[in-house]
Specification:
Blueprint: E1 9-14, H1 18-28, E2 35-40, H2 43-51, E3 64-68, H3 74-85, E4 94-98, H4 103-113, E5 117-120, H5 125-139
Helix pairs in contact: 1-5, 2-3
Length: 142
């Protein structure tokens, strides 16, 4: 009997750097990957995506949200706090992407924003490949 293919993992990346988004898309979109990536440049767009507002009416519901901690201005923080309070969206795991393994930065993300995991932000395609595998295996327990 053949095993059914795994359902695609829907990932929302909140990231303002188009080069990073393109690199992540390339890595997540490689043959054999089970992650599909959507991107939002900041928290306001991310919340419209998550609420399926306006042009996002048919957006997929993400299984995980990746959040660049370096974007953490008030708009992004408000969006993540709202995500945690939303009755339907609050179960979506949020992963903080950090550039430095600073304990203070990691603890702030966990405490204030309801972040489930903190991982080092990938800097290249190989890093995003590893992140895609990690999401499937660890963050979602598949």
């Amino acid at each position: 009997m053949t095993e059914a293919p795994a359902a695609a993992v829907e990932v929302l990346l909140i990231e303002d750097d188009p080069v990073v988004v393109r690199t992540a898309r390339e890595a997540f979109g490689e043959p054999g990957r089970v992650c599909r990536l959507s991107a939002a440049p900041h928290g306001v767009v991310a919340m419209a995506f998550l609420r399926r507002e306006r042009s996002f009416a048919h957006a997929p519901r993400p299984d995980v949200v990746l959040f660049d901690v370096n974007l953490s201005n008030e708009l992004e923080q408000d969006a993540l706090r709202e995500l945690r309070r939303h009755p339907v969206l609050n179960g979506i795991p949020v992963v903080a992407l950090v550039t430095a393994a600073s304990d203070e930065e990691i603890l702030k993300s966990h405490d204030r924003l309801g972040v489930r995991y903190c991982v080092t932000k990938p800097s290249d395609r190989d890093g995003f490949r590893a992140l895609a595998s990690w999401i499937d295996e660890v963050a979602l327990g598949r």
